[in-house]
Amino acid sequence: MEPRRTHIIVRHALGTFCFAELVSPDASAALQFYSDLFGWTTEEIPGATHPYWLFQIEGHVVAGLRPIPRGRQRWIPYIAVDRLDDIVAQAERLGGRPGVTPFEVSGVARMATIVDPHERVVGLWEANGRSGADRQEQPGSMWWVEMLAHDVIGTTHFYSRLFGWKTNERTFGHLTHGYTVYSVGNESVGGAIKIQQNWGRVPERWQVIFAVTDLQRTLDQAHGLGGSDELAP
Asked: Rounded distance, CA 121 to CA 99, Å?
């Protein structure tokens, strides 16, 4: 896996992952958990039907929280686009479908989600005041985004057509089928890994990976706060 260059304040190119959003049916509990885990503070953005929260470190935005009425709590990575509606329409032509209909977060962005042909959810971010997260690849912020897939080649075609991603195959000793790195120009933007049979029942998905200074200590702290290990390789 090859992250992008480290920035203090990130400027996001089109077609790159620019933001991580947590959707949760229990916003209060989620706000408390991640504040305790990463030391995040929050800024509430009032909305027409419900508020939206921005997570921050030292005043720099690192992620967001959108409440949902029901369903599973999960992280959704967002990709920077300039014409959100056109991308949604193109995704449908390529075999995907719309997810959450476009919504506006005042002074931040116009956002939506799409569902790819294998039911993985990814977000679209049309900047309207903010290009995405201020900080990435530093402790407590998004470090990398990767897709878990049974058919990496087939799914890669969908995203390459939609966002213009190029691919580069890497080899790691513990992976039988290697690792696919997606890029825009010279910038690596994310990756894809083939689900191995010995992993058990691992769902296909996009997953957000956060940078930490001490992995085991962070895991122990998450368990102490009531978190658990997600099914993963």
From this structure: 8
